[in-house]
Write a structure and sequence with these properties.
- By secondary structure, the protein is an alpha+beta fold.
- It has 1 helix and 4 strands; from the N terminus they run E-E-H-E-E.
- The chain has one helix spanning about 35-45, and strands at about 1-5, 10-15, 45-55, 60-65.
- The chain has a 4-stranded antiparallel sheet with strand order 1-2-4-3, covered by helices on one side.
- The longest helix has 12 residues, at about 35-45.
- The radius of gyration is 13 Å and the shape is flat.
Length: about 70
């Protein structure tokens, strides 16, 4: 597992990556409670949440928010 942050003048992003099996071709289950809670919390702080396959397998979860909210 790894974590990274990036910051531009407009936006800050936090990405968490793992090397697990990922979600497969069907992608994450939209109805999953954990993913819904993560998305809800991101929206509450005015952020976006992106879940994508990793370059070498696994999953990357990225939360990005405007620096105007900080």
């Amino acid at each position: 597992m790894s974590a990274s942050t990036s910051r531009t003048e407009d936006k800050t992003s936090l990405s968490i990556a793992d090397d697990g099996v990922g979600f497969g071709n069907e992608g994450p289950k939209v109805g999953g409670l954990g993913l819904r809670i993560m998305n809800y919390r991101a929206q509450k702080i005015g952020a976006t949440l992106e879940i994508a396959p990793g370059n070498n397998g696994g999953t990357v979860v990225t939360c990005a928010f405007s620096n105007n909210n900080t």
